[in-house]
Automatic annotation (TrEMBL):
<dbReference type="InterPro" id="IPR029066">
    <property type="entry name" value="PLP-binding_barrel"/>
</dbReference>
<feature type="coiled-coil region">
    <location>
        <begin position="1"/>
        <end position="28"/>
    </location>
</feature>
<keyword id="KW-0175">Coiled coil</keyword>
<protein>
    <recommendedName>
        <fullName>Pyridoxal phosphate homeostasis protein</fullName>
    </recommendedName>
</protein>
<keyword id="KW-0663">Pyridoxal phosphate</keyword>
<dbReference type="Pfam" id="PF01168">
    <property type="entry name" value="Ala_racemase_N"/>
</dbReference>
<feature type="modified residue" description="N6-(pyridoxal phosphate)lysine">
    <location>
        <position position="35"/>
    </location>
</feature>
<dbReference type="InterPro" id="IPR001608">
    <property type="entry name" value="Ala_racemase_N"/>
</dbReference>
<comment type="function">
    <text>Pyridoxal 5'-phosphate (PLP)-binding protein, which is involved in PLP homeostasis.</text>
</comment>
<feature type="domain" description="Alanine racemase N-terminal">
    <location>
        <begin position="7"/>
        <end position="222"/>
    </location>
</feature>
<dbReference type="InterPro" id="IPR011078">
    <property type="entry name" value="PyrdxlP_homeostasis"/>
</dbReference>
<comment type="similarity">
    <text>Belongs to the pyridoxal phosphate-binding protein YggS/PROSC family.</text>
</comment>
Amino acid sequence: MTKIIENLKQIQHQIEIAKQRVNAQQTVEIIAVTKEVDVNRTEEAIEAGLIHLGENRPEGLINKLDSINSAVSWHYIGSLQTRKVKQVIDQIDYLHSLDRLSLAEEIEKRATKRVKCFVQVNVSGEESKHGLTREQALDFVKQLEQFPKIEVVGLMTMAPFTEDETMIRQVFKQLKQLQQEVSQLNIPNVPCTELSMGMSNDYEIAVEEGATFVRIGTALVG
């Protein structure tokens, strides 16, 4: 318990310093990525004050939901198979991996409430990562106007796992530019004001470039 509190305080401090470096004003929400930890550790995270939790598999999410009754926001941060949408879509508050029309269609069909979604963009172009290209993302969000149960709150990306800070920063900078372009389209269900980017190794750079949600696992909950 104490260790998570210490980690959280340290991360919050680093986020504030990152914001001060660039005179950033945005609110930054910390998502505790609990996909690799058990229910007890997850409950410790909640007791430490974390209210945003991230899972990447339906089984892991459902297991936690069955055991945890706290009022928290659940974020699905992994790639979601179309056939598994019905298992999770009414259980989550945010989906961070909307990346294809077939997934949007299944969400529209299965959801009983409006779902806050991040469109996943593969800014770095790495073959190992899911997500749309910049050009595809713009076309994709225009098509989402036909799905009233989907609210595109923002964009999500993952930077390359590298020590090259310039490369990482460029990825985050490009996502911010794209988010502004999408927001200016003025599509009713696509406000696109948020940026989900930055993990344990690069969240400070992400915050400097405009992140409003950072997804932190190892550095926070182990």
